[in-house]
Write a structure and sequence with these properties.
With 415 residues, the chain is mainly alpha-helical. 67% of the residues lie in helices and 1% in strands. The protein has 22 helices and two strands. Strands 1-2 form a two-stranded antiparallel ribbon. The protein is globular and about 55 Å long. The protein starts with a strand and ends with a helix.
């Protein structure tokens, strides 16, 4: 008897919580490794979301005795009548989703987005595919497009707290803080113990200037879980925003006692030390963070951000380049390298690095936008316009109207 292998797929953390029982109901089987989402650039300036997004194949029969975790098999013979027709009629979506997952794992978000958009043409009523589209759009920096895709997912599955959380995150990054707060509160109404949503809500309230409300959220987080070191670091971030660096250090030392080997805590201790005017302690804390996690590209990226804040672009450049060496698909680090070269008016290296980024992720509009700027700086206006046109096309395909407007403004300014 012929057999069909179960296919597993990775999902971002905000998509994973709602998947329990999906197989038994004949929906989607999804399995993913755990991924943390707490300290991120979108809500706290700490770094990019690190996760993967995908959806699994449609299965219209229960898992066999082997079980999902053991890579069990399904007997095609167990699929009766119309179920067998489903498998036979739509093999292409399985390939699309497998290929999209692989692209996400490789950091090729533009190509993954293209595959997900093809998949949703086949299953237009699949909320999980829309959420995967939103994830890849978010990773590409197309936050408005991501928000629109999350809304489509919510329309199909309005009880999913993680979709509301994702919408809140995306809206926050386009500056719609009130919309973000509304979405995050909706997520919490569906799941009051959604700690990621609480963290994000606290950050959004900060960005609205409601520091008292933000502090209340962080205290609520600590009440939920006194061992959650990320709640302490979030509170410390709030204190540092108010230049209360000494109090922030006291909070971070509590986090350090809970998680003494967590590099992120030392990054924030270093930031607070710099704030107090103690660069020696600041650099020592950053070096300890790197010692604890030497292969962490995000730490190098954050070191680079500190050096940029201090005005030392040369050291910032070295740190960002090290981040790229550790993770060649680290788009945020590549972007900072290009921005530094542009600030230094080193247009040649800005062109080279933009081209390298575009070659690695050819469906991402951002490197083409920077390539156009760098080429324009070298007086190569015709080639710059070609790069801008490519960026505009990709923004249009991603349904990112804000990105389209940004590129068109650059095009109008190009002689």
């Amino acid at each position: 008897m012929s057999k069909m292998s179960l296919v597993f797929a990775s999902l971002p953390l905000w998509l994973r919580r709602s998947l329990g029982g999906a197989v038994g109901s004949g929906l989607l089987l999804m399995v993913a490794p755990g991924v943390g989402l707490a300290a991120e650039a979108a809500i706290g300036g700490e770094g990019a979301i690190a996760a993967s997004a995908d959806v699994g194949r449609r299965l219209d029969a229960p898992v066999g005795a082997g079980g999902a975790g053991s890579g069990g098999m399904l007997e095609l013979g167990a699929l009766a009548g119309p179920d067998l027709a489903i498998v036979a009629q739509a093999p292409d979506i399985n390939t699309l989703l497998d290929d999209a997952r692989e692209q996400v794992e490789q950091g090729q978000y533009g190509q993954a987005l293209n595959l997900y958009q093809q998949a949703v043409q086949i299953e237009a009523d699949n909320a999980q595919i829309y959420s995967a589209i939103a994830y890849t759009q978010y990773q590409l920096g197309s936050f408005q497009a991501a928000a629109n895709s999350f809304r489509q997912a919510i329309a199909l599955d309005p009880r999913n707290a993680d979709f509301a959380y994702g919408l809140g995150r995306a809206l926050g990054d386009v500056g719609d803080f009130q919309g973000a707060v509304t979405a995050l509160r909706q997520a919490l109404s569906l799941n009051p113990r959604h700690q990621d949503a609480l963290l994000a809500l606290g950050k959004m309230l900060e960005r609205q200037g409601d520091l008292a409300g933000s502090l209340q959220i962080y205290e609520q987080l600590l009440t939920l879980d006194r061992r959650n070191w990320q709640s302490y670091t979030a509170k410390a971030d709030l204190l540092m925003r108010q230049d209360r660096f000494g109090e922030a250090i006291e909070i971070l030392e509590q986090a350090q006692a809970i998680a003494p080997y967590e590099a992120e805590i030392y990054v924030k201790l270093g930031t607070a030390a710099f704030g107090l005017g103690n660069p020696r302690e600041g650099f020592a804390a950053f070096e300890e963070a790197v010692r604890l996690d030497p292969r962490n590209a995000d730490l190098q990226y954050k070191r680079g951000a500190i050096f940029q804040t201090l005005g030392n672009l040369d050291l910032a450049l070295v740190a960002h380049q090290q981040a790229i060496k550790l993770n060649p698909n680290f788009g945020a680090a590549r972007e900072e390298v290009i921005k530094i070269y542009l600030a230094q008016e080193n247009y040649l290296l800005a062109v080279v690095n933009s081209q390298l980024w575009a070659e690695r992720d050819p469906r991402n509009p951002v490197p083409y936008r920077y390539l156009g700027v760098a080429l324009r700086g070298r007086g190569r206006s015709t080639e710059a316009m070609t790069a801008f046109q490519q960026a505009r096309m990709l923004y249009q395909q991603a349904q990112d109207a804000q990105g389209v407007r940004q590129v068109e403004q650059l095009m109008r300014a190009t002689p």
